[in-house]
Fold this protein.
Amino acid sequence: MSDTTAGQAAQPGHITGFGTKPYRSYVLIALTLVYTLNFIDRTVITVVAQPIIDTFSLSDAQWGVLTGWPFALFYAGMGIPIAMWADRGNRVKIITFCIIIWSLMTVFCGLASGFLWLLLFRVGVGIGEAGCTPPANSLIGDYYPAKSRANAIGIYSMGVTLGGVLAQLFGGTIASIKGEDMGAWIQSFGMGGLFSGLDWAEVQGWRFAFILVGAPGLIVALIIWLTMREPPRGHSDEKSTTPETKAGFAEAFKEFGKKPTFWTLSLGAAFVAFAGYGLISFQAPFLMRVHGVSVHEAAVRYGAPLAAVAAFGTFLGGFLSERLSGRFPSVAAWLPSVGLTIAVPCYVAAFLSPTLPMAFALWIVAAIGHYAYLGAQYTVSVAIVSPKSRATTVSVMLLIVSLIGNGIGPFFTGLMSTSFMKGIIRSEGLDTSFHRFDLCAGKIAEIGPEGPALCSAYSEGLRQSMIATVLFLLVAAVFYFLAGRTFARDRWSANSN
């Protein structure tokens, strides 16, 4: 793990990259695994959204707060100091330390006794996860030469959607386990005595999901610590570009702050995240309320495949960018605008579709176009600055993305859902004081004569909110188009400074 020049080939690093090809591949796979775990732990809460909403009797607006700005604020706030540390310190150690933090906090989410504790543990997850992407992108920049970075970062970025797939598969499956069954399984291993005072019938499945997806991160942290080497900074750039000093925040800001591409790229990524986090936070509730599926079906039959095709969209975006870069040098910056423009009408049609098969087919097309942007936000951001400023540049971009996207997106979707629902209830002259919408899941008769109409308003409000949220992808498409117009001019090279 120490800084080392071992493995430098006879050829310059900007041609060969750092280390052997098999070892570079191992590092890329390992970092992609870390990013995948990052998003499993981040998104598993959305998989078990409706059970948590029902457990704590939350409104959609409250759920939007739980998945929105508190996490985003600390994720963003810690991102910059950690990235500055990564631009100066050992990036492998930083990643290892942060994996341990977010994994433990994810486990603690499963032990939360109320809304406030769950909120605090989610903040802890955000603090830990802030130390993943900036140092990882900086490491990839030093392991891979410029000609191979777009594809490498595209593969790394697949961790977002692969994490979504696994969160759906594991989270949905585990959440469907009954407490008594889990207790019997633990008893079969002879460990029942450790939980002798626990009434398994009272333990909800969503709690198991947090515990069982969070714990493996501790093992991965140990593997990263023992097997990954810290490369010399700038090793895979032209030798004249290897930095003599390490950039502080002010110096890094001077580099990216004057580049229009950075700001349009960041705003494009922010508005994609605004819509994306809003949609994913309410995807399972939408499927459960509007189409009547169970939490297991919403996750395994629909959530996991959607996340998988989103991963394909991420890979496709990076692949096309690399293939077309010779003919269109700025393609990495403007290609996302094409995918987003295609995604919007497909999303709207999916949410309005009365049948789940048709909605699912349209949703697949939309997800491919939507997630083709992910590799671009990292490829372009590291291409416009020198090696010494890459981690800080990525962290500032993620600050903007997190505050606008993760911070406001879920809250906007939840607030609009509650607002649209109340509007429908008022327009139909129903009981405006009713709040036990957890009864809509199989207990409508307990509500009374107004039960069907109230539950219909509950689902229709969310449908309208999802449509309103997805329209922000058009705003993002405009910003990516603008980034494409300036990227060629703003690209950094050895002779640009």
Notes: The domain at 13-233+247-490 is CATH 1.20.1250.20 (Growth Hormone; Chain: A;). Residues 4 and 373 are 34 Å apart (CA to CA). The chain has one domain: 13-233+247-490. DSSP finds 21 helices and no strands in the chain.
